[in-house]
Amino acid sequence: MQSTRKTVGLIEKYRQHLPVTAATPVVTLGEGNTPLVQAANIPKLLGYPSLQLHFKLEGLNPTGSFKDRGMTLAISKAVEDGAKAVICASTGNTSASAAAFATKAGLKCYVLLPHGYVALGKLAQAIHYGAIVVPILGNFDRALDLVRELAEQTPVTVVNSINPYRLEGQKTAAFEVVEHLDRAPDYLCIPVGNAGNICAYWRGFKLYKELGMASSAPRMHGFEAEGSAAIVQGKPIKNPETIGTAIRIGNPASWKEAERARDESGGQIDSVTDDEILKAYKMLGTAEGIFCEPSSAASLAGLIKHLENGTIPQNTTVVCVLTGNGLKDPDTAQKITTVDLTPVDAEIAALKKVMGL
Ligand code: F0G
Which atom of ligand 1 is nearest to the CA of 91? Predict the structure, then answer.
């Protein structure tokens, strides 16, 4: 059977809302159009059966995270501007995405990573896509400082979210949420690391409201990890720590714009503990069949906290953004499991015994 449908990326789909022209070479891997999946069990499990809860599965983007939305635009514009090389600091996902899109475009890609704090799958991706991978003896914040300095001294284009095209591309996720729900949700819950994505969603929701595509915009509820909660504490954290290595960031680049998004939307930025993150992470797997990475589960952890203390009402529509794919970080999944994986004799009787059949 012949199909007339072809995969289009974000730039083709949302061209009129993005800073591109007919002359912009489009570098795409088919990003965007990710599922918005309604929770089947978690609202009841939590005791809030009237909660309309949806998950935006950003881990289904081509490199397994939301970063691809910004990267298609950042790399396309870099090519348009004649760049030969790009660079980023990363806790892992940005580097994977930058490496993939740069390779597709024929650009060189340098990535600076905090040594020892990048999930194995993300590191494997950056290497596999052919980036020049440099682990540094320092954290993400230091890596980003170094990237800024290198970009001043050498002809490399920065593709971190301080590159203005990144957040413009990422705002398309908000368009999709409105299109899938046929309205804006009442609340959007989202993990906060470098604080770019919360700003991008807010830009998208605001624009769709201005254009009459939605009659309202959601309250933006962002969640930092407690050990890295610079915005919540109102000061940079020198040595950020959290199990969610993707959001292990102590001095978010988009701090001020994130506070504006919070305030304009009537939302909040709060923190969640590693225990709360892991509880939500496990619950997504066992109750919904969703495997996201630990940092992503900060959105659900934060929602649970705010439902419990009444800052989010239960009779409402909420979207939790699940920013990255759990397959990127199998180590954490294995580390926290209590399942006994001792091998069993390959015999029916032995199986019946351990399976309780
Ligand atoms: N979730 C995941 C899976 C991430 O990788 C990141 C950021 C965030 C949430 C936070 O988003 O920074 O826009 O507030 N990862 C960056 C990286 C820092 O290098 O991959 P943010």
Answer: 19
